[in-house]
Amino acid sequence: MSKPTLTTESGAPVADNQNSSTAGVGGPIILQDQHLLEKLARFNRERIPERVVHARGSGAYGYFEVTDDVTAFTRADFLNTVGKRTETFLRFSTVADSLGGPDAARDPRGFALKFYTEEGNYDLVGNNTPVFFIKDPIKFPDFIHSQKRDPFTGKQEPDNVWDFWAHAPEATHQITWLMGDRGIPASYRHMNGYGSHTYQWTNAEGEAFFVKYHFKTNQGIRSLSSEQGAELAGKDPNSHQTDLLQSIERGVYPSWTLYVQIMPAAEAADYRFNPFDLTKVWPHADYPLQRVGRLVLDRNPDNVFAEVEQSAFSPNNFVPGIGPSPDKMLQGRLFAYADAHRYRLGVNHTQLPVNAPKATKANNYGRDGLMATNAYGRHAKNYEPNSYDGPAQTNEALSAPLAVAGYTGTHEAPLHTKDDDFFQAGELYRLMSEDEKKRLVDNIAGGLSQVSRDDVIEKNLAHFHAADQDYGKRVEARVRELRED
Ligand code: HEM
């Protein structure tokens, strides 16, 4: 079989890919060996900055199919007809570790979904947990510093992890979730995905609703115990990647059913707790799950670097009929992601195939910057307004306006009548079986007992006591036991 010719980057044939050019036999290498120089120089540039969080991940393409009519709540085009399919790309991830960290860690999992809709790409950048540790974005860099490697020791430190949490009573709910049975998913296929934040839907009449997204796995929830996780993380650090890749290659396509909880916008102000507080769930008894559609992953990327490492999701990528809520965390994220992409990938990252719209085309006046290609041709103007036939604004807001009142200032989010940082953590604890409670307490105490300062331990114990007396007592007893050992 005749093979194609190996070429340099500029397309010239390569004479020898085994021996570099030298000055005589056994002599030093000569500078004119273009192929060698190019190969070594390219190799030095093969890594880009990893994501500052969620560095380790796996991705797959698929589709979303609408199964239920939600047009009363949103005018989003991709949701407007039962049976309509939209191409998607989903990237799963762990959060705290760097690239190369083990998949089977006790850590939230990212669930970042891109819908390539006919009205532009819609990114829903969620996790496998319905809540989060904090509720103001100004705390996010400190929070992440405390969970990642310490600048001096170069490793994760229980002192830092728990010291941050000692100062973040609002994290008690998410800690209870993370240290519980769902804290180490058996694979990416066996976990749910959540939008976590409250988002806004707007229907064709301009009526606004607040919504929370729930993607329920159709593979069933499967998790690992701490011992199983530690063993698997050591034996096969790529366990989740292997599972996802092989399952799709075998034609066993993972799927999730999407449900939403829908709150009419007028009910938000008087709801018994702040519906935009990311540390809380909305009880299903108040707002039941309503089915929307089905997400199926059926194609692996051909190149992990090009399509997974370079994929970019921004919570600010909305389409008509969907918008943000006033959740402060979400508002902070609306800035953070595209900024990260411009740093990590460059200003033209939206032109990469995985990030570019597929069902429509971007059409605007941005042109230059690193790695620009000219997609517009020689006659297109790069300014607006213009007297030519360049693209023009629609004068239609994507979503309904949010009502605001009062003065600017560094305000805490408003407290509603039932708001506190602990009651939902207590409710989650009381839902657990005796065995689950035992594992939860062991997992928390396993970490907390390693903390060097008693005052930090005491502050954390106070949070578990506040959530539920029995919960607090048992964590305290187990921590004391482990510290006496
Ligand atoms: C104010 C709070 C937050 C900030 C400032 C923040 C910031 C970031 C940044 C800078 C990245 C890296 C983006 C990149 O390089 O492509 C990232 C990734 C990610 N974040 Fe957040 N984050 C926040 C909260 C959250 C929350 C609450 C969730 C889930 C509900 C979340 C889910 C994710 C996911 C899934 C990724 C990975 C996306 C991917 O696969 O490319 N983050 N975050």
TrEMBL record:
Classification via Pfam families: Catalase (PF00199), Catalase-rel (PF06628)
- SMART domains attached to this UniProt entry: Catalase (SM01060)
Give the UniProt keywords, A-Z: Heme, Hydrogen peroxide, Iron, Metal-binding, Oxidoreductase, Peroxidase
Q: Which family does it belong to?
A: Belongs to the catalase family.
Entry-linked PROSITE patterns? CATALASE_1 (PS00437), CATALASE_2 (PS00438), CATALASE_3 (PS51402)
Which spans does this entry mark as compositional bias, Polar residues? 1-23
The cross-references to PANTHER family, in alphabetical order and at most eight, read: CATALASE
Q: Which InterPro entries match?
A: Catalase, Catalase_3, Catalase_AS, Catalase_clade1/3, Catalase_core, Catalase_haem_BS, Catalase_immune_responsive, Catalase_sf
Q: Say if the entry is tagged with keyword Zinc-finger.
A: no
Its protein name is Catalase
Where is the Catalase core domain positioned along the sequence?
7-392
Stretch list, region Disordered:
1-25
Q: What is its EC number?
A: 1.11.1.6
Q: Which reaction does it catalyse?
A: 2 H2O2 = O2 + 2 H2O
Provide the GO MF annotations for this entry. Answer: catalase activity
- The first-level EC class reads oxidoreductase
Q: Which residues form a coiled coil?
A: none
